[in-house]
Amino acid sequence: MRDQHALTVTKIVAALRDERKRLGWSYETLAVATDLSSSCIRHLEKDRATPTLVTLLKLATALRLDLVKLLAAARKPAHSRV
User: Fold this and answer.
1) Residue 22: CB partners within 8 Å, gap ≥ 6?
2) Residue 52 predicted with pLDDT over 70
3) Which of 20, 51, 68, 79 is least enclosed, having the fewest CB within 10 Å?
4) 82 part of a folded domain
5) Is the residue at 77 inside a domain?
6) Above pLDDT 90, what percent of the chain?
7) How many domains does the chain have?
8) Distance of alpha carbon 38 from its chain centroid, rounded?
9) What is the pLDDT of residue 4?
């Protein structure tokens, strides 16, 4: 089972990926906007790499998302169904 920190990062990266797709941006477009490689972004989105805080900040800034809000949303516990 993955630890809570890893799950939080996975949720943040998923939110960033969803926004990239919503904007219609390719890996290459986001790479240019962040000064990251497109392969780096691809690996992050496919959960093959763990982003640093600086990388998350670059991605969120390029996508005009608030990283603090993403973190808060990712840390909220999932509601259990009864």
Assistant:
1) none
2) yes
3) 79
4) no
5) no
6) 84
7) 1
8) 14
9) 86
